[in-house]
Amino acid sequence: MANLSQVELQNLRHLIGAHETSYEKLNTYASQCVDPQIKQFFSKSAQDALNTKQKLMTFLNN
Fold first, then answer.
1. Please, which pLDDT band fits residue 61 given cuts at 50, 70 and 90?
2. Least buried of 1, 32, 51, 54, by fewest C-beta within 10 Å?
């Protein structure tokens, strides 16, 4: 893979941070839910955000 420019690196860090924030918020929402369907929705969304963050992190490791 080609080296990332400074702008690309900043954008990548921003996206990773945004997905981390989304993961944390969605987990908090899920923990506060009583309705099982809504709880499941937030939990799945949190997991999706975490998975995306991990995929984005691979660009930093290459």
1. confident
2. 1
Distance CA 7, CA 46 (A): 27
How does pLDDT run across 20-45, given as a tens digit for each residue? 999 999 999 999 999 999 999 999 99
Q: What is the mean pLDDT of residues 40-57?
A: 97
- SS3 annotation, the chain: CCCCCHHHHHHHHHHHHHHHHHHHHHHHHHHHCCCHHHHHHHHHHHHHHHHHHHHHHHHHHC
Q: Rounded distance, CA 26 to CA 33, Å?
A: 11
